[in-house]
């Protein structure tokens, strides 16, 4: 299996090199040259298997023999042993045809743990095999950072630097990032928003001298291995609801477009998916884009679902590549437009292709709060604000004939203030995190300037 860049001018790589590269050298994102497919018969054969077994069957198609099967199985088993639920990602029924896929039973209470626990092990394995070290960077609006720090803390071959927007994450998210005592962990509060953090990460990748000097690697969903790990739960959820002999719909609270792109990949692989619905908060750039065909940045608004307060939705680039029939020149033009003017137009044929695969909707702050309150009163189920965004949009896009699964991307205790203000309940952190808010914090505050960030990383990274 070869991985190619959405911008077409970086070398094609095998799985291990794509894993370690993160972003392609031409600024593009890696995707498999060809989607691996499974027949309905092969998908049926996954019924009754554990999450770990299904993960192995799906992921080995992408790893393609570059990691020995027994090693890959071992890493999958270890990664999902960190989850507190035996099903890893349980499905909960909240209405006749409505389901919540709980992706928050990992160590940091967000869906990021699903991919990150495996990613850290995969990277460690490849680095050990090569006798190398790497410098990991990541940008976060709150959840990726905590998950990455938890997964990489104390690992011998990596130093990890996480950029988060100063004073724009929830107190629980911040403490998860700033309370690690591991010497290879560096939490950096950037005086800006998430898009500033993500731009800095991409600029570091595009600075060839710096990238090579510190042996840069990335853990955001620009890294293909993040996406592939998230494909697995679309399969397990569909299988438990009668797939592949029944079409299932999914609604996904969306920001950087990684999670829902994984659903698109599952569909390309042969999983019968009915509707794939993008749910956004007031930062509705994706919903507007589907409506108007114009991707246009309008400034980020702070919401009660801060992890989705994003304007530059990285993985939309992977979708554009697909919608333009893999025409990398069209992707380059769009991305240049975004950089120069903060917008680009999607050509009619490509927009039609996108609309064939996706629907989109927005939940305002009032609608998010009302959804938390009403879901609790009708079903007794407590939603976090990101999941509530999904549940609200799911209700507008559900079809009576197919089950609708909303991905629950975070535990309500990560956002206690928003949950309490919506419904009066102050959700408690699970026992293993009960002392989190008393743990000592350690982080640095930097200006949103490439030079400042590179100097900080350059002087703390050990992979030189
Ligand atoms: C809790 C939560 N929900 C939803 C999202 C959006 O996911 P994605 O960026 O993959 O679209 C994020 C962050 O990305 C998140 O942390
Ligand atoms: N919401 C994310 C933003 C980064 O997304 P990623 O999936 O590309 O890592 C976060 O919580 O940090």
From TrEMBL:
Listed pathway(s): Amino-acid biosynthesis
Family designation: Belongs to the threonine synthase family.
Provenance organism: Rhizobium wenxiniae
Necessary cofactors: pyridoxal 5'-phosphate
Membrane-spanning intervals of the chain: none
GO biological process, one term: threonine biosynthetic process
Domain Threonine synthase N-terminal: 2-80
Keywords, in A-Z order: Amino-acid biosynthesis, Lyase, Pyridoxal phosphate
EC supergroup of this enzyme: lyase
Name of the protein in question: Threonine synthase
GO molecular function, one term: threonine synthase activity
Residues the record lists as N6-(pyridoxal phosphate)lysine modifications: 112
Gene3D superfamilies in alphabetical order: 3.40.50.1100, Threonine synthase, N-terminal domain
EC number: 4.2.3.1
Classification via InterPro entries: Ser/Thr_deHydtase_PyrdxlP-BS, Thr_synth_N, Thr_synth_N_sf, Thr_synthase-like, Threonine_Synthase, TrpB-like_PALP_sf
Catalytic activity: O-phospho-L-homoserine + H2O = L-threonine + phosphate
